[in-house]
Amino acid sequence: MSDTVHLSLEEVHDLAVRALTHNGMGDAHAQAIARVITQGQRDECHSHGLYRVLVCVRSLRSGKVDPTALPTLHTLSPAIVSVDAHHAYSLLAFETGLPVLVEKARTFGLAAMVIRNCFHFSALWPEVEAIAANGLAGLAMTPSHSWVAPAGGNRGVFGTNPLAFAWPRPVGEPFVFDFATSAIARGDIELHARQGKAIPSGWAVDAEGQPTTDARAALEGAMLTFGGHKGSALSAMIELLAAALIGDLTSAESMAFDQGVGATPCHGELLLAFDPKVFLGDELEAGLHRAEGMFRAITEQGARLPSQRRFAARRRSIAQGVDVDRQVYDDVRRLLDGDRL
Ligand code: NDP
Ligand code: PYC
Fold first, then answer.
1. 143 in ligand 2 pocket by Cβ < 6 Å?
2. CA spacing 20 to 30 A to 341: which of 85, 113, 171, 333?
3. Which of 47, 90, 144, 232 is catalytic?
4. Fold of the domain spanning 183-224
């Protein structure tokens, strides 16, 4: 039997919605979550694709998540919108706040969206891409749980704290990067552990603080930042801007809030949008042209832009569907067995 199951994107979306709603997720949240999970599977970001349905359902069963709360909007200042997720998942809050963020960025040139009190599992590129689809540059960051040691330490302080950026290009896909400030997303180590695979050295230390390539030992120990002190400083910045500054939980506080139940981290998120038309005025074309020159200088020497792998996977998946790890598929299917929660 093959290790993978071939599905269309519609089948991925439908399976995610059914598994979530069967386990008590409200329909609006299930739809928003399934859209992003399908995008993750489509772009071959396996740590944030269908696998996340398992984590969402475990979180629902923990009783911590509000499965139906609807987000509410508040204006903090003319350029800052705040969306309270009321302890539901973050994605509906993002969708609710996006049009306001875009309008504010177009008015003021620079605007922020704060999301508070949200359970947050998702990759950030769908969000910065959605900002770029409106002709704006976008920056997003969020804490998670304190699994990651600071450079020079061996005990978790930071979350895996992703940072994502998108720049709208005159033609074609935007320039996008999105990475954890840990050496790798925790989801990737979890997938290695599920598959009994070793991890590369440099990702984590074990519970005794010793370097390890054992995925399970890594999950028990502490993850490491990417780029040593540089990733460590960026991760600290994210704790400051996307937790302390916005009045929400740090990764350490999110971990404490979890009380060991293993739910999705609960905290806030910060998104910034920049309107090149306001920054550049009459010089818009020249500014965008300058950016294109920089992209050309990268690609003309054979280096690739971040997200090129993802965009190629997207084109393939749209044309042919996706191959889902059979173990993940079977586990998600099993969530449809038994009584509705
Ligand atoms: P990766 O290390 O896989 O990739 C990070 C970025 O680097 C991508 O934009 C990728 O583009 C790019 N990249 C990779 N290799 C190259 C290369 N050779 N040249 C140029 N660019 C390259 O990601 P992570 O494991 O760090 O993170 C994975 C996902 O996990 C992210 O989407 C992140 O948002 C999510 N995450 C979410 C968290 C949360 O709390 N919500 C916490 C942590 C992570 P490409 O995709 O095209 O390869
Ligand atoms: O993969 O590190 C991760 C992660 C944490 C929260 C959501 N994804």
1. no
2. 85
3. 47
4. Wheat Germ Agglutinin (Isolectin 2); domain 1 (3.30.60)
